[in-house]
Q: What sequence folds into this?
């Protein structure tokens, strides 16, 4: 829906756009660097939307329960190949699992399931916004964000707090 595309959210000093395609920060042209006081950290979630689909059981209802079983197998194979350094297999399966998610938004696809697609994108975006809000509340700046990750500018003395927030 168009209303989702136009939603703008502010957390701390940063602005974000929430849309059906994902979360995106709206930073100005700026360069950030690690220095003696701060470190830049890029945190990315591997197979974020596929993981949300699996954890939330957001598969197309008309294909349940088999969709989740097959999709889980593909995601697990992709992550195992990525971990093993098998780039060809990992990249091929990435296209497959991400394409599967994309087809949930195509009315011409057997996988068409707009409710599950919106559930996936909104859950992902709200989860990232919650993470950003928790970090900012502790004095840890998020300088950029996109659909599946954030770039953090963390004071070195707050690295332990950052890890607690990210892993909990």
A:
């Amino acid at each position: 829906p168009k209303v989702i595309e136009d939603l703008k959210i502010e957390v701390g000093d940063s602005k974000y756009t929430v849309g059906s395609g994902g979360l995106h920060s709206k930073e100005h042209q700026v360069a950030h660097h690690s220095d003696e006081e701060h470190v830049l950290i890029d945190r990315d979630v591997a197979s974020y939307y596929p993981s949300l689909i699996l954890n939330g059981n957001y598969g197309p209802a008309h294909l349940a329960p088999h969709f989740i079983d097959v999709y889980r197998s593909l995601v697990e194979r992709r992550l195992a190949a990525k971990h093993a350094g098998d780039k060809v297999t990992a990249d091929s399966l990435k296209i497959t699992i991400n394409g599967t998610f994309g087809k949930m938004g195509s009315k011409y696809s057997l996988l068409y399931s707009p409710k599950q697609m919106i559930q996936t994108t909104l859950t992902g975006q709200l989860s990232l916004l919650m993470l950003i809000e928790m970090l900012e509340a502790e004095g840890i700046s998020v300088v950029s964000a996109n659909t599946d990750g954030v770039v953090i500018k963390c004071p070195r003395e707050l690295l332990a707090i950052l890890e607690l927030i990210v892993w909990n």
Summary: The CA atoms of residues 36 and 74 lie 43 Å apart. The mean pLDDT is 89. The longest helix spans residues 114-137. The first strand starts at residue 7 and ends at 11.
